Amino acid sequence: MRPFNSACSTDVNMNPVDFKQIITAWLDGSLNEEGRKQLGKLLMLPEYQEQLDAIMKEQQQQGYAMQAEFEESYHAMRRELQSRVQPEPARVFRFWWAAAAAVVVLVAGVWFFNSNQKTTQIVAEQPKPAIEIPAGQEGAVLTLADGSKMILDSMGNGILSHQNGADLMLSNGQLEYKLAGEAAGEETYNTLNTPKGRQFRIMLPDGSVAWLNAASSIRFPTRFTKDVRRVEITGEVYFEAATVMRNGKKLPLVVNADNRFEVEVLGTHFNVNAYTDEPVLNTTLLEGKVAVTSTRSGEKVVLQPGEQASLQTQAGASRELIVRKADAGKVMAWKNGVFDFEDARIDEVMRQLKRWYDIDVKYESGIPDIEFVGKMTRDIPLNGLLIALKKSNVHFRLEGRTLIVTP
User: Which InterPro entries match (predicted)?
Assistant: First the structure.
């Protein structure tokens, strides 16, 4: 696209097509300096922020990639931008799509840098963040039966090992177990672990596929030889369970979630959230049929598609399993590459950020009474997400890998 030549008009009645043309030029790097100044002025107006939100959603759906880089000084300049924007009065805040929020701050920040001497003075006085924290990515650690470990992040496609009648291989970001020959002796177990800031996918020896969220694990036999296919998990794992027949009968799959409840499956799609720092443990059924049993009380419930079984974990909480209708979109957001913060309290949001960005979170004066609505992609660096947090009037500072929430 040829460079966009702006007439520098800041008329609030600008044609939406013209505004979209400016944004498109900025995305592909063809917007000239005059156009950047105009865009910076326009983005101070709420009506153009709303137009930008709609345009960025459309661009994301088309796979359009942002090409601009962060300016070294934008961290201080965004404070200047926010001081000129009227904050929302309520303490329920809406996130913009990540790309849209980044454009507002980056473009307006560049404009302030070029045109405002006072802002330049602020840049010189503000310290830079110690580190840039990227978004989580694909990766995991595999522990074999003999205790040896493989870091899968750095390995390419191909066979990794042979374990008791099964070949272990990587194929396009998925760990797979392929049966190859007869098993010898008792079942041997492997464990796949995703550290904070990592997620991974595995095809188990029975053909079931499991997606592990950050800070999760799954322990499984390298070959299922017993009458029940049993695996153990921690954290959050989504399963698409394969149907296995033996002697004319379906072989059940049992998922033990951190020794707190078990999910019995005959062939289905379901998600288990069993993080130890969450106040409620959830099993959500998308397809098929599962039975959930509390290991504390022995209570058992059967779920239908679209239902969720919940178990409170706090001391003194009821041991009863509660069945309710599930918000499947919110439950599966992590697997689909999205943070879904609809009706989420700030402590819930921070727990997700801790796991995905491998950070610590501290509250200087207790947990603020704040709820959020909206969604953000999980592929942006932490600094980009923090722009949206500040837009929502959440105060904090980042010290190394510790995010400190302030009053």
Answer: FecR (IPR006860), FecR_C (IPR032508), Ferrdict_sens_TM (IPR012373)
